[in-house]
Amino acid sequence: MRHVVIVASLVAIALSGRGFAQDAGTAAxxxxxxxxxxxxxxxELRTYYANPxxxxxxxxxxxxxxxxxxxxxxxxxxxxxxPTAPAAATNTLVYVLAYPSDEAREASWKAxxxxxxxxxxxxxxxRNGKLVAxxxxxxxxxxxxxxxx
Length: 149
Description:
Layout: H1 2-16, E1 42-50, H2 55-72, E2 76-81, H3 86-89, E3 92-99, H4 102-114, H5 116-125, E4 132-141
Antiparallel strand pairs: 1-3, 1-4, 2-3
């Protein structure tokens, strides 16, 4: 249960637009926080914004195809969420994936993107138009005090 609370907090922060902004005016950014846990997996918080009327088609594609393909390509699914705030409830899907490392993430997404089963599922689901208008992705590492690493 504690893991759910931690991940739900991450999702709330991402949806509110706080906490992950990059300061474009900073000449030299500091290194990673010393509070990042040694050996933490790489976590990716992804937010999908569906085109009008396409959210349920997006859920169907995840349910029937994408989850299986994520697992096939070494992505650990932490969870999926549907926002309940009225402004996001009709077009937003949020999920978190975990990988052993940044390099593993890159390899997994490359293999996934080239998978013929993914290409067929994507193309079939988008016969009547693209499902996703925009994707936001935030890369994270666990803190040393996080229960989920």
